[in-house]
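User: My notes are a mess, but here's the protein and zinc ion's SMILES. Can you give me a structure?
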Amino acid sequence: MRVAYPDFRLGSVLATSFTGTLSERHGNAVERIPTPHRLVDWLAVNGLAVDACTTAQLDLARELRESIHAAATAAALQEALPASAVQVINDCSAQGRAAALLTSEGKRRWRLSSASCVEDALSVIAADAISIIAGERDGKLALCASQTCQAAFFDTSRSRTRKWCDMNTCGNRQKKARFNANQRKNLRSVE
Ligand SMILES: [Zn+2]
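Assistant: No problem, the inputs look usable. Here's the predicted complex:
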């Protein structure tokens, strides 16, 4: 059975889905992994099921998240990568012992070294971040055009002209704002 967690953004890119667990970074920020339990939920949804998570592991996860955000933002702006962020990403990548397994249906599945190993799950996320920041994957890092968001996202559209991190949130809000502005303009011209 699939469990739906409606307020997690299920982007197709693991690393930027993870950075999206803190949304509206330049507005009223929303923390979507406020407790260890919520991180466990998020990891399960993203194919990295762990049994439990300590507050220290949650802190480490958030440190990794902010480091990915900082490095991905710098990469999107073609600026130098912050050394401390690179260090955290590398440490997280190196300390995990996750193995990629091929299922008989031809899908990739992650096997963590133990059911409690949040560090293994974080290493998978760190390695995913490395692959997009290093330009190993087909796509381009960009920043969301919403002023209250500005999230780094991985644009895999053919034209590389995607403007928003997520069409269902930022993209939709922008569309609505434009629509309302047009409505007001039309009303004024009727008056
Ligand atoms: Zn956005």
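The two ends are 55 Å apart (CA to CA).
User: Great, I'll file this with my notes.
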